[in-house]
Amino acid sequence: MAKASLKSEILCKGFQVFLEKGYTGASVRDISVAAGVSLGTFTGHFASKEAFAIEALNLYYSALQPRIAATLGDESVTPIKRIKAFLDNKCDETSQCSSSDLGCHISGFGVEASKHSEAIRLRVSEIFSEIEEALTVCLKAAVKSGDLAKNTDCKALSGFIYGSLQGAYLQSQIEKNEVPVKRFRKLLFSNILQT
Q1: pTM (2 decimals)?
Q2: What whole-number distance in Å separates Cα of residue 127 and Cα of residue 114?
Q3: What pLDDT, on the 0 to 100 scale, is given for residue 128?
Q4: CB 137, CB 120: distance < 8 Å
Q5: HEC string of the chain?
Q6: 9: number of Cβ within 10 Å
Q7: How do residues 127-181 score in pLDDT, each as one tens digit?
Q8: CA 76 → CA 65, 144, 183, distances in Å?
Q9: Which backbone phi and psi does 27 adopt, to 5 degrees?
Q10: Among the CATH numbers 3.40.630.10, 1.10.10.60, 1.10.357.10, 3.40.50.300, which is that of 50-192?
Q11: What is d(CA 105, CA 15) in angstroms, rounded to the nearest whole number?
């Protein structure tokens, strides 16, 4: 296995270990065993568990970026439809998961790991900001097209939408069903982003 693909394999398997055991519950040994590599191989690729976690987050987020671009960046449909497509994609993702997997892996991991690592907290915050910025662009386009009022604070609204989605994910994890996410989506489009 080439060095780059071995590193990717360690990142993928290791992020799964974090999702199963949590950041503090997962050891470098656990990650190495899951990836089928020695501890020396792990430390040859990553300076620390924290450095590994940030690279794993980046890999996971890079896999999400094409889906974000395909929905929020699709200028062939109206801005509100782009937001609906993004949330439909996120809701479909939630409904295909087992009850223990409901929610956003980035936020779930970030909540726990950020208590122990400022660098991880900052990276998760950057990822959220990037997603919120993509939502802000759609909302500004909706204002420009007349679908939203001219006085709409698009940045605040995008923060509200994404924060509410994360809260719905958390509630879905606690309740072990997707009802909170579906309720959020329904209320968002019937009460806030009416077209």
Answers
A1: 0.85
A2: 13
A3: 94
A4: no
A5: CCHHHHHHHHHHHHHHHHHHHCCCCCCHHHHHHHHCCCHHHHHHHCCCHHHHHHHHHHHHHHHHHHHHHHHHCCCCCCHHHHHHHHHHHHHHHHHCCCHHHCCCHHHHHHHHHCCCCHHHHHHHHHHHHHHHHHHHHHHHHHHHHCCCCCCCCHHHHHHHHHHHHHHHHHHHHHHCCCHHHHHHHHHHHHHHCCC
A6: 15
A7: 999 999 999 999 999 999 999 999 999 999 999 999 999 999 889 888 988 899 9
A8: 18, 15, 27
A9: -100, 165
A10: 1.10.357.10
A11: 10
pLDDT tens, 87-137? 987 654 444 444 445 457 788 888 888 889 999 999 999 999 999 999 999
Half-sphere exposure of 39 (CA within 13 A, CB side): 6
- List all residues 6 or more positions away from 153 whose beta carbon is below 8 Å from its beta carbon: none
For residue 32, what are its two tokens? Answer: 């190495």
Give the Cα separation of 31 and 37 in Å (integer): 9
**1-46: what fold?**
Arc Repressor Mutant, subunit A (1.10.10)
The token pair at 140 is: 């500004």
- Show me where the domains of the chain are located: 1-46, 50-192
Give me 172's structure tokens. Answer: 């879905």
Backbone angles phi, psi at 97, to 5 degrees: -95, 155
